[in-house]
């Protein structure tokens, strides 16, 4: 590993399958040898299954339980402390289910990445697969974006689109999208840490990446 190690901190709330996709890619692709390190996982819920995944991959995991704080600000102050201990180049919201204040987002501007299970700006918020089915869209998918103070509204890095078939159930559609999330998120993380993708003003600048890699059509 080089002396200029770039650290990632992942924030989770639950299952942790996107976290696992990142940790697996890091292990299988030898990110460590390229100076990229998954430094820590922080959950706002003790029962998050992702904590076990972190431990299985040998990544330090801790809990900052939001319910024990009186205000969003005091929760975020504790969260920042857990994050800043690692001086991360990137903080990945890998299924982190808390709305963050504008102050928190501003503090980590350009270093805060989220994955959302829809083709934003369609279907921000919760229950995206159910809403996509109800709306009758033919195309659905996932978006990786930098976080802004608009809920699920920040500048888009990359998207993966999947078809919606007439007989899809919510679970079937969710699984189809999730498969793409697990491919898309590690790639975006890697691009950002390599300096090939960055936030400039309100736009994402990508250098040395084929445009078709930023937009996946999966069937
Ligand atoms: C994923 O669908 C992600 O897009 C959304 O929350 C879900 C988290 O799943 N933000 P997991 O914890 O990564 O399995």
List the topology elements.
Layout: E1 6-12, H1 17-28, E2 36-43, H2 50-56, E3 61-63, H3 72-84, E4 90-93, H4 102-107, E5 112-116, H5 128-135, E6 139-146, E7 156-163, H6 170-193, E8 197-200, E9 203-206, E10 215-217
Parallel strand pairs: 1-2, 1-4, 2-3, 4-5, 7-10
Antiparallel strand pairs: 5-6, 6-7, 8-9
The structure holds 5-O-phosphono-beta-D-ribofuranosylamine.
Notes on the protein architecture:
The protein has 219 residues and is an alpha/beta fold. It folds into 2 domains: 1-108, Formyl transferase, N-terminal domain (Rossmann fold); 116-143 and 158-219, Rossmann fold (3-Layer(aba) Sandwich). The protein is 32% helix and 25% strand. It is built from 6 helices and 10 strands, in the order βαβαβαβαβαββαβββ. The chain has helices spanning 17-28, 50-56, 72-84, 102-107, 128-135, 170-193, and strands at 6-12, 36-43, 61-63, 90-93, 112-116, 139-146, 156-163, 197-200, 203-206, 215-217. The strands form 2 sheets. It has an 8-stranded mixed sheet, sandwiched between helices. Strands 8-9 form a two-stranded antiparallel ribbon. Helix 4 links the parallel strand 4 and strand 5 (112-116). Helix 1 (17-28) packs across helix 6 (170-193). The mean pLDDT is 96. Bound molecules: 5-O-phosphono-beta-D-ribofuranosylamine (GRF). Residues 14-18, 50, 94-95, 115-117, 178, 181 line the site of 5-O-phosphono-beta-D-ribofuranosylamine (GRF).
